[in-house]
Amino acid sequence: MTPDDRALVDRFLDMMAAEAGASRHTLAAYRNDLDRAAEVVRPLGTASAEDMSKLGSEWAELSAATVARRAAALRRFFGFLVDEGLRADDPSAGLPRPRLERPLPRILDEEEIARMFEAAEDRATSGEGAALRNLALLELLYGSGLRASELVGLPRGAVREGQPFLMIRGKGSKERLVPISSRAQTAVKAWLELAPDGPWLFPSGKKHLSRVRLFQIVRQMAADAGIAPDRVSPHVLRHAFATHLLSGGADLRVLQSLLGHADIATTQIYTHVDSARLVELVNARHPLADRSR
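Structure (tokenized):
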């Protein structure tokens, strides 16, 4: 990357951090994608649409998802340059545009979730610390739809008696309120009576529980319930939270807020799960439903 390109990328990433609230990991991903493009197109900052089209052959061996991500990074970068008056035109039209079909999320049905809770509750009756912790983890994953990183990073005082919400700092350091059930409050309270002292709700050594360890715990809980472990992960439980809420009649915008999705298009993927209910809802609630033909 040329010195001029490096300066432009630094300015772009400064904007992303200050105005868009991009996380350290997001900034690193943007920098990497722009660096890779600059290896092919030099100088990047003054590249034309024709220069951008050359990336199609260079990216031919990459997955469709990787191509889409790199193209999105470049579009945002060039959009920034145009907005800042650093160039007059946007060459993004020359970028490759892969057709992506977003995969449907893996989910568990309500009966399988019930089996996981029954198994976790049975183990928790022993009073063993690990079993009480695991039940609290399960209650928060499925009951509040938290991301794995959000859950393991909860401070010790995050769950307060009588307070029905958690304040979560999610992707891009954006804050949101998520509900916490009385069941989850009870489970967390029982866990805290045995939990080691420290700043974290789910401590592990000198730090908090890792996402890898959480993944292992969730899979073991699935196995305890007679469910194939490879079907279950913390993210699958988050999907189940969203799917079952939507099936129960939750509004898509409310669901978007609870999940912390920046774009409702991300939330809309859950509408596949209960198309029959949606058809029934239209037939029953539409103003024309009661009119005879």
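The longest helix spans residues 64-83. The two ends are 68 Å apart (CA to CA).
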